[in-house]
Amino acid sequence: xxxxxxxxxxxxxxxxxxxxxxxxxxxxxxxxxxxxxxxxxxxxxxxxxxxxxxxxxxxxxxxxxxxxxxxxxxxxxxxxxxxxxxxxxxxxxxxxxxxxxxxxxxxxxxxxxxxxxxxxxxxxxxxxxxxxxxxxxxxxxxxxxxxxxxxxxxxxxxxxxxxxxxxxxxxxxxxxxxxxxxxxxxxxxxxxxxx
Length: 195
Ligand SMILES: C[S@@+](CC[C@H](N)C(=O)[O-])C[C@H]1O[C@@H](n2cnc3c(N)ncnc32)[C@H](O)[C@@H]1O
Fold this sequence. Notes:
Elements: E1 2-6, H1 13-16, H2 18-25, E2 29-34, H3 40-49, E3 53-56, E4 69-75, H4 78-85, H5 98-112, E5 113-123, E6 141-148, H6 152-158, H7 163-167, E7 188-194
Parallel strand pairs: 1-2, 1-4, 2-3, 4-5
Antiparallel strand pairs: 5-7, 6-7
């Protein structure tokens, strides 16, 4: 079983979930990928510590083979990335173009995922609600499950993620316009499969 994580940076998924950490220790492979920045050595050391591999890359052009991942985690990447669009040149030193890069990202996630694999998108810190309007059939993906607000704990329990680490960001939501409704600020998990 190959687990891929896009944007592991400060908290790779196995730090949220002892169950996933055990899966990596007992035979699953883990590859983390994100753009390099000045804190990247910290991430690389963490990933080496569990016997995983780090490959520098971006979600718009994943440095991974097609049909190679059973499970792809994307935790709080779209939200933070979305806000970076406003400044065009990001902290990580790359330039984004909102529409184009968003579509590239989903084409890439679909390409790298094995048939019947799962992409789990968690938006806990800066919920990227625009994702929810996307027609995933364009990418050969289907929405298998959607968890919003308090339901997110349910998905967390299934994967061994501590409920406290799911709710801890509720006080920190930032960047969303005041005109958005409270519902639009709610954290969510989206589970996609490849059809
Ligand atoms: C808010 S951090 C989330 C880190 C970690 N997933 C977590 O939950 O703590 C956002 C992450 O998205 C990554 N990121 C931003 N834009 C990206 C892109 N275009 N491709 C891949 N990763 C990206 C950043 O490098 C960073 O790792």
